């Protein structure tokens, strides 16, 4: 299988000489093209830091991170930001939008830098994405006129507008009720079915259980992993049980 992200012996500290906190300790992880991987672990175990270092959003102290064949650690900042913008999508727990733009324009805006002359095309693509994620009728609303779940779907559309190879999500369902969370997850499952690789950080066993592989972190290391395979709808409860069981073991 083709590797899309390859992190080798990643070390990352925060703080200064007097108060240094080692957050990632020799972490090695490979994400394969087309996978849907989630990362679980206790609060402070380093999940978000791992996501940010693997996506080149944050630097590492030593080790290496490759996106396909390109070492992100060796990239210049401009190259890195091109890769992040063109090849990666990001979805956060609380998506940030410009309040004076419509939802559609908020989705289109990040793609304008690379496609200045194609505003019409981009708008039509954004509209298609909105329809696909179930918010087609919200295109011309302002962000204040949408629910948290609807805004999160808009965040997914924005992440998809440049047709990224991989989407990184940091607790994308963390601020939503269980129904809205499942709707967002269904969007991710569909996107993954269509070929986009997904890596999510989550505290929710039900979210992790629907991914294909779960990495468990503790104290800055990946201490366990659960291979679930692609989701088949009949077995969700069983998958949740397996994830919860592993998670409890990790927390002990
Ligand atoms: N920018 C930063 N400066 C200093 N310390 C940081 C910074 N970012 C993270 N940390 C520390 O690194 C450790 C790991 O943080 P991280 O956010 O990666 O953990 P997490 O597993 O995602 O936690 P949570 O589930 O609570 O979001 C924590 O102790 C955190 O306080």
What does this structure look like?
It is a single chain. The chain has 252 residues and is of the alpha/beta class. The protein has one domain: P-loop containing nucleotide triphosphate hydrolases (Rossmann fold, 3-Layer(aba) Sandwich). Helix content is 37%, strand content 26%. It has 8 helices and 10 strands. The protein has helices at residues 47-54, 77-87, 103-112, 119-132, 148-160, 178-193, 205-209, 236-251, and strands at 3-14, 21-32, 36-40, 62-67, 70-71, 88-92, 166-170, 197-201, 213-218, 221-227. Strands 6-7-8-3-9-10 form a 6-stranded mixed sheet, sandwiched between helices. The protein has a 4-stranded antiparallel sheet with strand order 2-1-4-5, covered by helices on one side. β7, α6 and β8 form a beta-alpha-beta unit. α3 (103-112) crosses α4 and α5 (148-160) packs parallel to α6 (178-193). The longest helix is centred in the C-terminal third of the chain and has 16 residues, at 178-193. The chain is globular and about 50 Å long. The model has no long low-confidence stretch (mean pLDDT 93). It binds adenosine-5'-triphosphate (ATP). Adenosine-5'-triphosphate (ATP) binds at residues 14, 21, 23, 41, 43-49.
Which structural traits does this protein have?
252 residues; alpha/beta; Rossmann fold; six-stranded mixed sheet; four-stranded antiparallel sheet; 8 helices; 10 strands; binds adenosine-5'-triphosphate; transmembrane transporter activity; ATP binding; MacB-like_ATP-bd
